[in-house]
Each structure stands twice: as structure tokens, then as C-alpha cells.
Amino acid sequence: MLPISDTPPPHSKPKTPEILDRKHSYFTAVKPYLSFHHRRTWFFLAVLLLQLLLLLSAPSLPFSLSAAGSSSPRPSPALHNLSFDNSATGEQNFRDGLFINEAINENCPYGKVYVYNLPPLFNTEIVKNCHNINPWSSRCDALSNSGFGKSADGISGIVPEKIAGAWFWTDQFSLEVIYHNRILNYRCRTLEPESATAFYIPFYTGLAVERFLFTKNSTTEERDRHCTMMLNWVSDQPFFNKSHGWDHFITVGRISWDFRRSKDEDWGSSCIYMPKMRNITRLLIEKNPWDYFDVAVPYPTGFHPSSVSDLKIWQDFVGNRQRSTLFCFAGATRGFIKNDFRGILLNQCYSEPGSCRVVDCGGSKCANGTSAILETFLDSDFCLQPRGDSFTRRSIFDCMVAGSVPVFFWHRTAYLQYEWFLPGEPESYSVFIDRNEVKNGTSIKSVLEKISKEKVKRMREKVIEYIPKIIYSNSIHGLEGIGDAFDVAVEGFLRRVKEQEGGYKWK
Ligand SMILES: *[C@@H]1O[C@H](CO)[C@@H](O)[C@H](O)[C@H]1NC(C)=O
Ligand SMILES: *[C@@H]1O[C@H](CO)[C@@H](O)[C@H](O)[C@H]1NC(C)=O
Ligand SMILES: *[C@@H]1O[C@H](CO)[C@@H](O)[C@H](O)[C@H]1NC(C)=O
Ligand SMILES: *[C@@H]1O[C@H](CO)[C@@H](O)[C@H](O)[C@H]1NC(C)=O
Ligand SMILES: *[C@@H]1O[C@H](CO)[C@@H](O)[C@H](O)[C@H]1NC(C)=O
Ligand SMILES: *[C@@H]1O[C@H](CO)[C@@H](O)[C@H](O)[C@H]1NC(C)=O
């Protein structure tokens, strides 16, 4: 089992040096802006209500309230279409002897999702109490704007002016709020559970437990309470009973290891080990690769385009960028334990100032904004992605969104995590260097220098091609005709349910 006690608290004050390189959101703005937040909340509620009314009055109407609107919704060749399997549509249109409106069904070959109406204590009330989600600082800014956080106004000098509005100070742990808001407007959502293929339980699994993870004297009962209550609630639902839960899913904005406590004295909640959780699929930012019911989805980054044209502008921008540095490393520079692998990378980076750039996250640099990190990724051909406190880091996605090619040292950092979202051939978009070779003195610079300019170009093109799949768009219906990370994740789960045909076959 993993060194679970290593797991990072978010937004913790750096009490020990080791905490400095935690899974701390690079893009997190921590200062509370209360009036701002409340205005946002009301605006958001108003928009939500309007959308709900529209949805109820015209469920099949393809409307879009996205502010920017997509002036050119035609996907560029670099963009992926959603992988619709047309062979399934025929069967979908004819059910129970009735033809179902084709306009509703044509884009949902894998079926539709029913969203449970959970008691607010499992979601909206948690966000309402955003001041108290963790013991150190308010999370109100981070959870504002449907989970995207505050607008990244300080970034306009770095990104093209036209799409500065697509950047936010998004917190890496806000996945649950982002998915919940998106799924309420999902084109394949159904309001009738009888017609659903899958069932979404909008429980804020990570946010509910965060406070108790980082309170020293919290009891195991406190850490398990919300999850237990949610499971009791959902297991009373007829559709859960019917399927034993195998067609149900939740989102988890933290790593799987925070929910796998097996002994009372250990770290975390035991949520995932609870018997009633057994058949429920979890979409989380880091999975246990050996658990079929864990599915890893991309960490939220700060980039949330609201139209295909904004996405295209960004892809062109990172594709044409002149990159002056061979590679870079963003992380804390102080307090590494002597033989920590990250320390070796830092030393190599510092000793090659002409080829490598370090972003020191030790101070407040990374906590208060993306500028320094984004700029470094934009200027580098490669970015080093060692494992951190856990196997994955948000930085993988920050790097790729900037069109920089990731360099991995552990297979579990990305290859065994995000299979639905990244190219099948690791060497097409990334470099793998065995960590033992690095420990034995192999120079990263010499490895990367040997890769031909042509090959670097091809890898970068592959990274850029996959940007849509690793971002969460800021449009209530997603990006027209293109699957973003949300679409890929939910469609992937629907497809799984269809493939299992009546239940996962436990051996
Ligand atoms: C996307 O779909 C359109 C129309 O179905 C097709 O013309 C286009 O080639 C597809 N693009 C990709 C990248 O598959
Ligand atoms: C934990 O400690 C805090 C302050 O020391 C106290 O207020 C709280 O009641 C304690 N909680 C438990 C469960 O003991
Ligand atoms: C679940 O289904 C069983 C029969 O399959 C039934 O006996 C039981 O009452 C059901 N429970 C609920 C909560 O619906
Ligand atoms: C999980 O599914 C299996 C059948 O696939 C069933 O036997 C088992 O009872 C289910 N577990 C729960 C907790 O519903
Ligand atoms: C971030 O910190 C720098 C100084 O470290 C400060 O000048 C800047 O205003 C801060 N930005 C935000 C958004 O807090
Ligand atoms: C690293 O060096 C050790 C001995 O110093 C050797 O046993 C090991 O095979 C080397 N590993 C690699 C990957 O070169």
C-alpha cells in the first residue's frame, strides 16, 4: 500500500518544508473576496434557474447560453470529434416498441444520465460553508464560478488578449463542483430515471471530508460520516437496488488514497472500502490502477475556453510559440529530503541554467497565480514531471495545456492513470526516463538533446491535439462537436455500462 500519510493537505500552511511541494494549486488565489463571491453566487444561481426552466420546458431544444457563443463551431482538423458509434443508434431509437424522438437520441448512442436530487447537505450546503471546508483558509474563491475560481485577470500579458477570459485561478480540488454543474446541462441527461443508462450521485466526496482530513484530532467517524450517509441514502433508491449500484457513479476531487483507510489509526476516510461503495464507479484525479471502479480524470487546470474558436486560438498560440528553453521544472526548491528524487532533478536543472528553467514554488509564487508557471511551460520544449507526494500532479496538465512535452519517471504518473484522455502510445507525446538511470547519474539534458527537432515537433503537435481532452470547457453544453475531458469521462462511463450489459462480472 502507498505511503498514505504522505498525502498532501491542500492550502496548508507550510509547517514543515516537506509541505511546500504539495499538491498545491498553482492557480489558487487564496485571498477571500467575499463581495465578489456573493455576487458570483447569485449570478450563478440565477443562470442555473434560467437553465433549469429552459430545460424543463424544452428538453430537446439544442440551446446554448454560453456567453461567448461559438462564432465558428467548425472543428479544426486538430480537434477530436466525439467518438459516436453510429451502429448503436438504431437500437437506441427503438425501445419498448416505440420510436423515441431522434432529435433527442441521435447524439447519445451510449444512453443518458440521470442526476439524483441529493439532499443539499451532500453538495450545495458544503459549498455554502466554503469558509469552513478546511482549517486554514477560505475556499470560497476557489469554488466560485461553478468551480472554475476567480477570473485570472493578472494573466493578460501572457496569453492572447482575445482569450484572456478563458483563464481562471482554478483550484486543483474543485472537480466535484465542475462536474456537477456541467452534468446538470449535459446533452445526454434525462429527467426520467426509467430511461437512464447511468446514474450520477452529485456528492462532493472530497470537499465533504477535507476539513476532517486536516484536523489533527478528527475521529474516524467524522471522516466517514458524509460518505456513510450518502451510501445509506442512495442504497434506498429503487434504481440502485435494481442494479446493485454498478451503473452509478460519483466524482471525487481528491486522490483515491484519501478514501482507502483500512485501519483506524491510518490516514483518510474509508469511503471507498465501504461495502455499499463496492459497485459504484469513482471518477477521481488519481486512481488506484488495480481497481476497475476507479477511473482517473484530468485535474482541472486554469484554462476553460467557452467556444471552439477560443480553443483554436489557444492551440495556434502554443503551437507557434518560440520556446527558448529545452526543459523546465516547477516545484518547491527548499526542504527536500536528502535523497528525494525531486532534489536530484532540481540540482540537474540548476546546473544547466542555459537549458533548464526552475520555477521556485517555495515562496508564494505558485500559490497566488499561474503567471510564472504558465510562462515557463510556454517557453520550454519539455517539462519534468516526477511523482510528488502521490503519483500524479496537476502540473502534468498545466504543462500539456501550454504545449510543452511532459517527461515522466514513473509509469503511474500518467500512463497507468489517464488512459481515456491521453494518446495510447506514450512515446508519441511524452518522454520516459527511468528514475534509476537518473539516480545513477544520467543527464536529463543529454537525453533530451538527442531527440531530433523533428521528433520534438511531432510530440508537441500530439500534445496540442489532445488539449481538448484534458480541459473543462466553460460552456454549459461543452464545446460544439468536440469532446472535452468531461464529455470523454461521462461518455466513457456510459460506454462501460453498455459494455457490461447488466452488471460487472465479479470473478
Ligand atoms: C468530425 O466529424 C465531421 C463530420 O461528421 C467530419 O467531417 C470530420 O472529418 C471529423 N473530424 C475528425 C477529426 O474526425
Ligand atoms: C479537536 O480539538 C479542537 C480544539 O482543540 C476542539 O474544539 C474539538 O472539539 C476537538 N474535536 C474532537 C473530535 O475531539
Ligand atoms: C431491494 O430489492 C429487494 C428485492 O430484490 C427487495 O426485497 C427490497 O425491499 C428492495 N429494497 C429497497 C430499499 O427498495
Ligand atoms: C455488487 O454487485 C454484485 C453483482 O455484480 C452483487 O452480488 C453485490 O451484492 C453488489 N454489491 C453491493 C454492495 O450492492
Ligand atoms: C502575487 O504576488 C505578487 C508578489 O509576490 C504580487 O505582486 C501580486 O499582486 C500577487 N497577485 C495576486 C493575484 O495576489
Ligand atoms: C545503477 O547502478 C547500479 C550500481 O551502481 C547498478 O547495479 C544498476 O544496474 C544501475 N542501474 C541502471 C538503470 O543503470
UniProtKB/TrEMBL annotation:
<keyword id="KW-1133">Transmembrane helix</keyword>
<dbReference type="Pfam" id="PF03016">
    <property type="entry name" value="Exostosin_GT47"/>
</dbReference>
<feature type="transmembrane region" description="Helical">
    <location>
        <begin position="42"/>
        <end position="65"/>
    </location>
</feature>
<feature type="domain" description="Exostosin GT47">
    <location>
        <begin position="109"/>
        <end position="446"/>
    </location>
</feature>
<keyword id="KW-0812">Transmembrane</keyword>
<keyword id="KW-0472">Membrane</keyword>
<keyword id="KW-0735">Signal-anchor</keyword>
<keyword id="KW-0808">Transferase</keyword>
<keyword id="KW-0328">Glycosyltransferase</keyword>
<keyword id="KW-0333">Golgi apparatus</keyword>
<dbReference type="InterPro" id="IPR004263">
    <property type="entry name" value="Exostosin"/>
</dbReference>
<dbReference type="InterPro" id="IPR040911">
    <property type="entry name" value="Exostosin_GT47"/>
</dbReference>
<protein>
    <recommendedName>
        <fullName>Exostosin GT47 domain-containing protein</fullName>
    </recommendedName>
</protein>
<comment type="similarity">
    <text>Belongs to the glycosyltransferase 47 family.</text>
</comment>
